[in-house]
Amino acid sequence: MENNWESDLARLEYALQELRDMPVPDLSKENEALTINPSLTLMALDWRNLCAVVRDKETAPVPLQGQELVLLFKRPGDGKMCYYPARYHQLLALKVLAENLDRQAVADEAEVAVGKVDAAIEKACKEGLLLGPPSKIVRTGAHFPDEGIAGWQPYLKSDHFTLQWHVTQACDLHCKHCYDRSTISPLTLEQGVTILDQFREFVLEERVHGQVTFTGGNPLLYAHFEELYKEAEKRNFNIAILGNPTSREVIKSLQQIQPLSFYQVSLEGLPEHNDSIRGEGHFQRIMEFLEILKDLSIYSMVMLTLTRENMGQVLELGEILRDKVDLFTFNRLSQTGEGAGLAAVEKEKFRTFLSDYLEAAKSNPTMSLKDNLINIIRLEQQAKPFGGCTGFGCGAAFNFWSLLPNGDLHACRKFQSPIGNVLDASFLELYHSEAAERYRLGPKECRGCKIRPVCGGCQAVIQSSGLDITRDKDPYCFFVP
């Protein structure tokens, strides 16, 4: 057969020439709705492998007869010309949008979870085939200075939102600084699935990607944990766990459902001190569990609750954890619940500790930055800011909140910050409530501070220090304007 593919090749090359003359999709114009890239052409060819021939005729495979759908478009932002055979998820996303189809109906017809449809559309946006509207999770700006430090603008808008879900109060430990040892009956599996549906509606409406971080207590002790994990996977959420050590078999079974974004455990200092807080043998169990996570290629995190007693052990613990964990960091003690019986860090020593930690972190990649007040030191050092506690300074009720086993929603688990109950109101209603806005605004004393977008202190520490979270700044703040 003669080279009939050459006519298709000519068509493809002509389409590419037309594409070169098209303008680059303008990302500065924010779309109010999801749209198809205006430069996109979907071309049906009767021969395969022609895209490879255009790129390099010498190395390209021989064209084969058979229909192939090719996508041609300019990538938003950099204007790169893209052309390649269309993949299933791209065709699915384009069909849903072009025909204005209901995502759930499409999923039902294809006999897949609706999260597969969501994921296809989200991926097509990242590839530039679709132009997505901007996130609605945006700092209100009115309480920020007109001029802040260079580089903080990216911290005003979040493209993700985390639901930290305490699915059970049941726990196999009895830590001395536990924020809440009360007995709360957990929700049923049916209620849990309804909550996941509500959260999906919330993230789609707010135009962000959702993450569900299961915790407790020990989330693995929730009677329906694996079923709930499967339901989260079906809705295109990232999934993480804040919990206690478990067996390799349990982790492998979860990985088969959906790989974890991370698994976080806790240590409270060197072995003797840690075990006095969390129970005999706990330190060794954590070290063995970190080996399991490493073997299974799961991103591992270790969190420490910083107290007066363990502050001097943090840097040494960081060295012990070097190469054993992906991320090690700390939260300051909130003297709430049983944590009220422990001594908080001395204020006059805290700045020196942060400086020492920041210096040690330069040579220890395991040690990560989290406490918002570190940004004060970085400002003094003329270094770029980092995102702080949740990636956006204090993220309480901004891009993060905590759900208790009975459906009560809090801005943050480390302090009493009630917003409402998800069994009585939707996530959307609760997010836009006056209660949630109060936590998002943070203390009046922080408003106007030029590092507020990457700081805001810690509202849990403010409250547990007996101060007013709507008025008083973090008592450990040492920023001098």
Write a concise keyword list for the protein shown above.
16 helices, 481 residues, alpha/beta, nine-stranded mixed beta sheet
Note down, in words, how this protein is organized.
This protein has 481 residues and is of the alpha/beta class. The protein contains 16 helices and 14 strands. The protein has helices spanning 5-20, 50-55, 88-98, 103-110, 114-127, 189-206, 225-233, 248-257, 271-278, 282-295, 314-321, 347-361, 374-380, 427-431, 434-441, 459-464, and strands at 35-36, 41-48, 64-74, 81-85, 130-131, 160-166, 209-215, 238-242, 262-266, 300-306, 327-332, 400-403, 408-410, 418-421. A 9-stranded mixed sheet has the order 11-10-9-8-7-6-12-13-14. A 3-stranded antiparallel sheet has the order 2-3-4. The chain has a two-stranded antiparallel sheet with strand order 1-5. Helix 4 (103-110) packs across helix 5. It starts with a helix and ends in a 17-residue tail after the last helix. The relative contact order is 0.09. The mean pLDDT is 93.
Radius of gyration: 26 Å
The run of helices and strands is HEEHEEHHHEEHEHEHEHHEHEHHEEEHHH
Number of β-strand runs:
14
Query: Structural class, from secondary structure content?
Result: alpha/beta
| Low-pLDDT runs | none
Q: How are the strands of the biggest sheet laid out side by side?
A: 11-10-9-8-7-6-12-13-14
Write down the overall geometry: globular
| Beta content | 15-25%
N- and C-termini, Cα separation: 79 Å
What's the helix count?
A: 16
Biggest sheet record: 9 strands, mixed
Helix share bin:
25-40%
Mean pLDDT: 93
